[in-house]
Design brief:
Layout: H1 20-29, E1 32-35, H2 47-53, E2 57-60, H3 65-73, E3 79-80, H4 85-94, H5 99-103, H6 106-117, H7 129-137, H8 143-162, H9 164-177, H10 183-195
Parallel strand pairs: 1-2, 2-3
Length: 203
């Protein structure tokens, strides 16, 4: 935030003690929901559903609730990238070293070299060396394998953002098609299928 080049264009904000009250402000204001857990890890939960219900477009892997959102909003209204769960498992069986993957991606190689050289930590050139070494030699979460697809998708999102009409159309369709995830439907199904309870006269 202190960088004179980036200041005014990009801001990082940390919200301590994130809770429902903060979510009520943040979620309706969001334009893009980043749900980038490794496919098969089931890391994305219902938070991304709330964001999509409020019109935020989702960029994410084919993981967790992203799969359910994809089925409801349609592939043209969600930005899915990266490996599938089966592809992740297959790559892990072949080994989790990422030297070849990094070498095949000019952008990724440049990014990691910059981080390792201390560009982002001039007061401590070795601060992020452990992070870079982990990605190069022990990339269990396939960050390097998904990097190019993520980079390409983010560039497409940047182009879409410039077309306000197209962005708004997708945002509106997200909200309209996410109605299936309403609490009313979920509770009625729980009542019918799990609790075997009949709705009361005012339900």
């Amino acid at each position: 935030n202190r960088d004179p080049v980036v200041r005014g264009r990009l801001k990082v904000v940390f919200l301590p003690n994130y809770n429902v009250s903060l979510a009520e402000t943040i979620i309706p204001a969001a334009d893009l929901s980043e749900q980038i857990s490794t496919a098969g890890m089931e890391a994305s939960g219902t938070g991304n559903m709330k964001l999509a219900l409020n019109g935020a477009l989702t960029i994410g892997t084919l993981d967790g609730a992203n799969i359910d959102i994809l089925e409801r909003v349609g592939p043209e209204n969600i930005m899915i990238f990266g490996l599938t769960a089966d592809e992740v498992a297959e790559r892990r069986r072949a080994g989790i070293g990422a030297a070849e993957t990094i070498a095949a991606s000019r952008v990724l190689a440049e990014v990691l070299d910059a981080i390792a050289s201390g560009v982002f930590s001039p007061d401590d050139r070795n601060r992020y060396q452990g992070l870079v070494d982990s990605l190069r030699h022990h990339d269990y979460f396939m960050v390097t394998a998904d990097f190019d697809a993520y980079h390409t998708t983010q560039r497409a999102i940047g182009a879409l953002w410039q077309d306000r009409g197209a962005w708004w159309r997708k945002a509106i369709l997200n909200t309209a098609r996410m109605g299936w995830f309403s609490a009313d439907r979920a509770i009625l199904e729980y009542a019918r299928d799990i609790w075997r309870a009949e709705p009361g006269p005012h339900s």
